[in-house]
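Hi C.,

You asked whether I'd gotten around to modeling the 793-residue construct. I have! Everything is below, sequence then structure, no commentary in between.
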Amino acid sequence: MKNLLFAAFAVLLPFIALAQNSVTGKVTDNSQNALPGATIKIKHQRTAVLSDVDGNYTLSNLANGTYTIIVSYVGYRAQEKSVVLTGNATLNFTLVQQNFLADEVVVNATRASKNSATTFKNLSKEELAKNNLGQDLPYLLNQTPSVVVTSDAGAGVGYTGMRIRGSDATRINVTLNGIPLNDAESQGSFFINLPDLASSVDNIQIQRGVGTSTNGAGAFGGSLNIQTTTRRDSAYAELNNTYGSYNTWKNTVSVGSGLIDNKFTFDGRLSRIKSDGYVDRASSNLKSFFVSGAYYGKKDILRANVFSGSEKTYQAWNGVSEETLKTDRTHNDFTYDNQTDNYQQDHYQLFYTRNITNQLVANAALHYTYGRGYYEEYKEDQGLTDYGIAPVVLGGVTQETSDLVRRLWLDNDFYGVTYSLNYTPKNNLNFVLGGAYNEYKGRHFDEVVWAQFANYDGSGSIRHRYDDNDAFKTDFNIFGRANYQIDQFALFADLQYRRVYYSYFGIDPNGTPAQQNATLNFFNPKAGVTYNFSDKSNVYASVAVGNKEPNRRDFTDSNINSRPKAEHLTDVEAGYRTQFANVTLGVNGFAMFYKDQLINTGKLNDVGGQTRQNVPDSYRAGIEIDGKWQILEKLSWAATATFSRNKIKNFTEYIYDEDPAALTANVVNSYKNTTIAFSPSIIASSEISYSVLPNANIAFLSKYVGKQYLDNTSAETRTLSSFFVNDVRLSYNTPVAGIKNVGLSLLINNIFSTLYESNGGTYPYLYGGTLDRFNYYYPQATRNFLLSLNVRF
C-alpha cells in the first residue's frame, strides 16, 4: 500500500500548480523565410516544442520570472535570448546559416535518418547527462526500448552488461565515430575499459535488429552508434563530482577552448570513478581521459581524438549460488587479496571530412587501439603438469598438485581505416558508399606467479609462462546504400559484402595443437519502404539480412570438422511513427528468423571441447512501443514497452558424467519450442518528469522485466524472476555570481528496496550417475543513492 501511495503521489504531484504566462514568436532565416520544425526550449529544462509550418511557436504555462530561450535548427547556428516574464511575451528569432560542415557527417553513413524504414532511438548529450552520475554507459540506456541491463557488482559500476531484445553484447555492434569497439575475438564490448565515456559523448543512436550497414561484427540484436565530442563554439570548464552508496565516487574535469579564430577547437576530460560495490569485495578503481582537437574549414573538417581508460576490478564473476542467495545476497566466492582484473586500453582516431562539391561529401578515418592487461586468480590443488611444471619431491614425497596464483594475459593491437562517400545529385536521391578494413593482433599468454610447490626451469624468474598463443584477424567490408524519394514514398536499398580472415592457435584434424585459420564471406542485403503521411507521420517496412562469425572459443576448442557454422539472420521490421503537438509515438513490429543460431547445449565436440552448437531454427517476434506525452508545459510522461515471443523450435541438451570423463553423453534431453535463454517476453519502462520550478525537476523512473530462463530448456526451476524497480531523480540548476551553472542531482535507485537478480547462469552436474543442477545469480543493490554537484564556467 505504501508503494502504491508513493507512486500515486509521484503521478499527481504535477497537478499541484499551473502557471499562466506564455511566450510566442516566429523562427526565420536571414531572408525571413520560415523555419518549420525548429526546436525551441528553455535553458536547463528538458521540455521543448517545435515551430509549425509557418515557423511559429508557443511556450505556455510559464510562471513569472527570467527565462533563457534557446532555438536550434539543423544547418543553422543556435541562438539564445533572455526574457523577463510578468505576463505574455513575444520573442522572434532569426537564425544564421552555418558556413561549415557539421561533425554529424562523420557518422551519417552508418546511421538511420528520420524517414528510414528501420527502428531506432536517438539520445542527445542532454538526455544522457540526466543520469550520468557514475554508473556505466549501459545504465544510461536503461529507459530505451527492449534494453535490459545488469551489473556484476550490483550497483552499475564495474563490469556491466546489456541485452537488446534478449541478444547479448556479442550480438550488439558498437561503433565510436564509425570505428568498431567490439573485441575482434570475443566480439563483446567492455565499457569498463572506457570509464565515464558518456561524459565525452555528444549523441548515440540505438538501432534494434540488423539495422543499416555498419562497420565491425554483424549486428544481430542491435547497434550502438556513438558519436563523441563535437564542435562547441564557446569556451567552457566543467567540474562534476558524485558521491554515493558503497563509497562510490566520480570526479570529472572537462574543459574546452571554444572556437578559436573561427577555425580551431580543443576539448579535454579527465575522470576517476571508484566504488566498493554492493557485492562483497566487488570494488572498482577506474580512470580515463579524453582529448580532442579539430580544424574547421569552409569545406573540410580535420579532427583527432586520443582517449584511454584503465581499470582494476575485484572479480565478482561467479555470482552467488542459489542456496547462498537465501542467507547472504552480497556473498563473493573469491577471498584472495589480489583476485583482480587489470586492463588498459588506448585509442587514437584521426578523421578527415571534405565537401568535394555541393553534392559530394567524403569521410575517411584512421584508427589504432592498444590494449593490454591480465586477470589474476588463486587456484587450489592444481595438477602441476597441467602448467608445465614438474612434480616436486619434498621429504621423499612427490607433490603432484599445488595451490598456485596465475595471471592470464591479453596484449592486443587493433588498427585500420574506415571511409564513406555521400553523393546527393538531387534533393530526392542520395547514394552512400562506405566500408572499412581492420586488422587485429592478439597475444594470449598465461603465467604462474606463485605456487606452494613448484620446480621451475631454474631461470630464477618468479613468473613461469605455461601457455602462449597468438591470433590474427582481418575484417573487410564494403557497402552501398541508395535512398530515393518518390512523392510520399521513400525507398532504400542497402548491400554489404564482408570478408573475415582469422588465424588462431587451435586444434588440427588430428587433435594436435597447431596454428589454424578460417575465411568467411558474408553478403548482407537490406531493403525498405517508407510512406510519409506528413512531415511528422509515416509508416515503414523493411527486410534485412545479417551474418555473423563464431567467436574465439568456438574456433579454438574445435577443429575444422567440428567447427560451428556462422549464424544467419533474416530480420523483418514494420512500424508507425507520428508526432503531434504534444505526443510522439512509435510502434514497431519485428520478426527475427535465425538459421544456425549458436547456443550452449552442453554437447562436447569431437575434440572434447564444450563449445556452442548451431540450432537450425529459432526466432524472435514481437512489438515495441516508444512514446512521450507532454501532458503540460512542465509535465511529461515517456514510456516504452516490448512484448515478444522468443523460441527455439528444437533443442537437445547433452549431459556428461564427470566420473570418468567421457565423450559420449550419459543424458540426452530433447525439447520443442523452448524459450531462448535470457529473453523476457515483457520489457517496459516509464519516466514521469515534472519541472517543479523553472530550474528544478523531479522524475519517477520505473523498469519492469519479465521472467527469464537461465538456459534453453524452459525449466521453471532455472529462472530469473520478473522484477519491477523504481528510481527517483531530483535535479536543480541555476547560474550563480558569474558561474554559468551550478547543478545538484540526486538519483535514488531502487527506492522501494526490491530484492531482485538481473542475471545468472546454470549448469548440470552429473557424477556417478547422480544428476544435479547448479544455479547462480547476480543480485542487484537495494535502495542506494548518487548525489552529484556540477559546476560549469
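If it helps when you're writing up: DSSP finds five helices and 45 strands in the chain.

Thanks,
B.
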